[in-house]
Specification:
About 16% of the residues have low confidence. The chain has 189 residues and is α+β, with helices and mostly antiparallel strands. The radius of gyration is 28 Å and the shape is elongated. The protein is built from 1 helix and 11 strands. The strands form 4 sheets. It has a 4-stranded antiparallel β-sheet with strand order 3-4-5-6, with no helix packed on it. It has 2 domains: 50 residues, no CATH class; 118 residues. The longest helix has 20 residues.
């Protein structure tokens, strides 16, 4: 008898949960007052607030690479976060699988802030130390339709074109585990 009662209670509870989950998202009833409350689901396409706010996205996961930055023969860990920034943190390796706790930061304030950046690390100068390679992607320019262009074969949705080609900057790896302050080939202003 007790087992049947438990099964019945579980069945009633699961049906209540299912009815709540599959209920209409537009109106919820407050059990205390009995008045319907309008519920605005942020995932619905008809939400008027969607045009005013950006959807919350989780921050990008940090990326990391293991290279020898200071040329001592042991791998160092270099981590960076957002593709919008060229900031990287280097954790020097001891050679036994452990790294220093305090990281060495590197970033260039002279790069455009809103341009996407791609970071790579390789020994470009063949000196035994990894160099930081930053490719700065240009902002996209939307093509404007010409008013006198009545060509029926023209693409109605032209793809945006870059304003200029991507720029690649190389920061030399230094013996202390940092990268040079200015990229290779750029003179001080």
């Amino acid at each position: 008898m007790n087992n049947n009662l438990t099964k019945s209670f579980a069945l009633i509870l699961s049906s209540c949960i299912a009815s709540i989950v599959f209920a209409d998202n537009n109106i919820l009833h407050d059990l205390n007052e009995g008045d319907p409350l309008v519920y605005s689901n942020a995932d619905q396409p008809n939400d008027p607030k969607d045009k005013k706010r950006k959807p919350k996205r989780p921050p990008p996961l940090p990326q990391q690479v293991f290279v020898d930055v200071n040329g001592d023969g042991s791998l160092d860990k270099v981590a960076w976060g957002s593709p919008r920034h060229s900031l990287s943190v280097t954790f020097l390796g001891y050679g036994d699988g452990t790294f220093i706790k305090k990281g060495l930061f590197h970033g260039d304030k002279h790069l455009p802030k809103k341009a996407p950046k791609i970071l790579n690390f390789a020994d470009v100068t063949n000196d035994g130390r990894a160099d930081k390679i930053v490719t700065v992607m240009p902002p996209m320019k939307k093509p404007r339709p010409r008013p006198d262009d009545h060509d029926a074969t023209a693409d109605p949705h032209p793809k945006p074109k870059p304003k200029h080609p991507p720029k690649t900057l190389v920061y030399l790896g230094m013996a202390d585990g940092t990268f040079s302050k200015r990229p290779m080939g750029i003179t001080n202003d």
